């Protein structure tokens, strides 16, 4: 096994049957990551081998990398990562298929998600976690969509049951989930107000928001406007303050994923569930689920132009630690993409 320190991005091309991949042997900050040459994986019966053209990173990848909150270790390994290569969202070209795969063929351009392993030159992915990349959509644009797009879609369409004409407030409107949420809310007929930093006001307007509020100068919870739906991807304000600007039967979806070192957001989720039981307002924390049917919906929205991925910055695979540092700050504009 050959390892190259991450700051040196000029790694040599691996021999046939091998690949470059980001690996981590323990939980910790981005410094635990290294660029390594590994054997190329072989797809199982229901898996596809994808040559990764691009992978996007999001805060969930940072949680898995650091093992914080510690609750994530129940799924990814108690003492160290069970699977050494991080990354979930990807897009690329199918290079091999398992014996039972019928939904895709070798040579297809696809995008989707995997449990881990996307930050590599090749990755194995379940066939039902992939969808075709629409004509005219770039590989890096498609890679930006899966987790953030599905989170926004499921929050607004399924949890909030957003109807045309309803008012929607989206905090973190310039971020990964937020940038898709603004566009999806508009596609569903919502009247959208976005909250973001002052430097991102024009960007959020370009996404389609009807009104944009800079959080540095205006506290949205002090205003008189009430919203039918609030997707709170920042959770900078207490639940009580956000409920004050929610209509009597409105839906509030807390969705930052942040929380204590051990159980993460579970304490806030429990409080929201308890409050929801004694009020007409719907407080609905949720966890998005990967579903191919929703990936296909997002593919249709990409093809029609209803959603457009916006990429803040592209990093080489050898510089992927810097990509994870950027998303961990919570200040990325749109999505951050790694291109092997």
UniProtKB/TrEMBL annotation:
Q: Which UniProt keywords apply?
A: Oxidoreductase
Enoyl reductase (ER) domain segment(s): 28-338
Q: Which SUPFAM superfamilies match?
A: GroES-like, NAD(P)-binding Rossmann-fold domains
EC number assigned by the record: 1.6.5.5
- Domain of life, per UniProt, equals Bacteria
UniProt KW Oxidoreductase keyword: yes
Q: What InterPro entries does the entry give?
A: ADH-like_N (IPR013154), Chloroplast_QOR (IPR052733), ER (IPR020843), GroES-like_sf (IPR011032), NAD(P)-bd_dom_sf (IPR036291), Quin_OxRdtase/zeta-crystal_CS (IPR002364)
- EC class, as a word, reads oxidoreductase
One GO term in the molecular function aspect is: zinc ion binding
Pfam families in the record: ADH_N, ADH_zinc_N_2
Matching SMART domains: PKS_ER
What's the name of the protein? Quinone oxidoreductase 1
Q: What gene is behind this protein?
A: qorA
């Amino acid at each position: 096994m050959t390892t190259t320190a991450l700051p040196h991005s000029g790694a040599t091309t691996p021999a046939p049957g091998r690949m470059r991949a980001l690996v981590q042997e323990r939980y910790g900050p981005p410094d635990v990551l290294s660029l390594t040459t590994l054997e190329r994986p072989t797809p199982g019966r229901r898996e596809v081998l994808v040559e990764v053209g691009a992978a996007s990173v999001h805060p969930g990848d940072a949680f898995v990398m650091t093992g914080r909150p510690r609750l994530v270790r129940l799924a990814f390994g108690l003492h160290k990562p069970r699977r050494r290569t991080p990354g979930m969202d990807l897009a690329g070209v199918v290079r091999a298929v398992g014996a039972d795969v019928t939904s895709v063929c070798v040579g297809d351009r696809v995008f989707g998600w995997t449990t881990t392993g996307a930050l590599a030159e090749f990755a194995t992915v379940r066939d039902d976690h992939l969808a075709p990349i629409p004509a005219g959509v770039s590989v890096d644009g498609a890679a930006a969509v899966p987790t953030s797009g599905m989170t926004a879609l499921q929050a607004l369409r399924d949890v909030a049951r957003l109807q045309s004409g309803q008012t929607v407030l989206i905090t973190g409107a310039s971020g990964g989930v937020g940038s898709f949420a603004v566009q999806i809310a508009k596609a569903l007929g919502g009247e959208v107000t976005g909250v973001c930093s002052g430097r991102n006001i024009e960007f959020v307007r370009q996404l389609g928001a009807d009104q944009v509020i800079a959080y540095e100068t205006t506290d949205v919870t002090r205003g008189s406007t009430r919203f039918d739906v609030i997707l709170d991807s920042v959770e900078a304000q207490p639940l009580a303050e956000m409920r004050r600007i929610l209509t009597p039967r409105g839906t509030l979806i807390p969705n930052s994923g942040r929380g204590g070192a051990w159980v993460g957001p579970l304490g806030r989720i429990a409080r929201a569930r308890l409050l929801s039981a004694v009020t007409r307002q719907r407080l609905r924390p949720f966890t998005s689920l990967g579903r191919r049917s929703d990936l296909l919906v997002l593919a249709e929205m990409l093809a029609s132009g209803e959603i457009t991925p916006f990429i803040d910055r592209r990093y080489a695979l050898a510089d992927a630690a810097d990509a994870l540092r950027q998303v961990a700050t919570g200040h990325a504009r749109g999505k951050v993409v790694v291109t092997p």
